[in-house]
Amino acid sequence: MRQFNANQRGSVFIIALIFLLVITLYVITKSQLIQIDEKIAANNKLQAEALLVADAGVEQAKFIIATTTDFSAPITGTGNFAGGNFSYTIAKTGKQPISGNILQITATGTKATANSTLVVVASKGIGAVALDGVVAVYPGQ
User: Fold this and answer.
1) Residue 109 exposed, middle or buried by CB count within 10 Å (0-12, 13-18, 19+)
2) Which of 141, 139, 134, 1 is CA-nearest to residue 58?
3) Distance between CA 115 and CA 108 in Å, rounded?
4) pLDDT of 57-71, one tens digit each?
5) Average model confidence (pLDDT) across the chain
6) Least reliable range by pLDDT among 25-39, 72-86, 101-115, 119-133
7) pTM, rounded to two decimals
8) 3: left (phi over 0), alpha (psi -120 to 50) or beta
């Protein structure tokens, strides 16, 4: 049987404790990272839902544009969709054509703690509303 020196006694115990400490720190760090990932995923979901609510505001504004002829003053409105709230503003933009109107729709959607803003340019000719495209999306503003 092999004999150990007095200064070697307990070294296995200390190495095992250090190994156990390293494993414990690894597990704690991983669990914290998982919690952070879950929060990020939840925030991304809320942000996407707020964008959908803002889009519902744009759709409501399109309906208002289709049924309105006087755009001399900005038109504002509010509503709700899918558990969120939206507000929109319709206003003329810059230079106007001889017939019809070029309008800017600014719609903000809010869902829980997240919000998104869409800015869309629309043109209204005689009886038709055409969205010329999304100018900007402002998440979280």
Assistant:
1) buried
2) 134
3) 7
4) 999 998 898 888 888
5) 84
6) 119-133
7) 0.72
8) beta
- Structure tokens belonging to residue 50: 């707020």
Please count the structural domains in the chain: 1
Task: Evaluate whether residue 52 is within a structural domain.
Answer: yes
CA distance 133 to 6: 81
Q: Which range of residues forms the domain containing residue 89? A: 6-139
Q: Is residue 1 part of a domain?
A: no
Q: Please state, in angstroms and rounded to a whole number, the distance separating the CA atoms of residues 47 and 24.
A: 35
User: What confidence score (pLDDT) does residue 48 get?
Assistant: 92
* Buried-state track 44-53, b at ≥16 Cβ within 10 A, e below 16: eebbebbbeb
Sign of the Cα torsion 86, 89, 90, 95 reads: negative
